[in-house]
Design goal:
5-stranded mixed beta sheet, alpha/beta, Nucleotidyltransferase, domain 5, about 35% helix
Length: about 150
């Protein structure tokens, strides 16, 4: 199965309350959307966390080919090998991404303009808005459970 994935991460302040959004498609059909708060973090940590969650989900869905679209040029270039990862907080996330990628026969990551990543971006904004309204940084997207409720 070949999946097209759109990921986004963002935060309110940098660092600040952070959230992720993931849209997974099989052709034109959306097969899964994920969104949730990840607590306090930076924009880059949120972007990497969204990618990690997306790749984990793609493995669960038994994808053998994955094409990731992100509006994070930095992350796309780091994962593709064009840029080195210099920040110590990002290195473990980068290593986790590289490990997850080995589970696919084919993997591609591309930087896309924000307008082409609007669904994932909207998921992030929705979670950040809910967290802001609730005065919390642990809000979860519609249909998502908190880790503690999963046993």
């Amino acid at each position: 199965m070949k999946l097209q994935i759109f990921t986004d991460g963002g935060c309110s302040g940098n660092p600040g309350p952070a959230a992720i959004g993931v849209v997974i498609k099989d052709g034109a059909k959306t097969v899964k959307t994920l969104s949730r708060s990840i607590g306090q973090g930076t924009n880059n940590i949120a972007e990497y966390t969204a990618l990690i969650v997306a790749l984990q989900e793609a493995l669960i869905l038994k994808a053998d080919e994955v094409s990731v679209n992100t509006d994070s040029e930095l992350m796309a270039r780091q994962v593709s090998g064009a840029y080195a990862v210099k920040h110590e907080n990002i290195k473990p996330l980068f290593e986790q991404v590289k490990h997850l990628v080995t589970g696919f026969k084919k993997f591609h990551i591309a930087h896309v303009p924000r307008g082409q990543n609007s669904e994932a971006d909207a998921l992030v904004r929705q979670v950040l808005k809910k967290a802001s309204q609730d005065g919390r940084s642990d809000a979860y997207g519609v249909g998502e459970e908190s880790p503690s409720s999963k046993g």
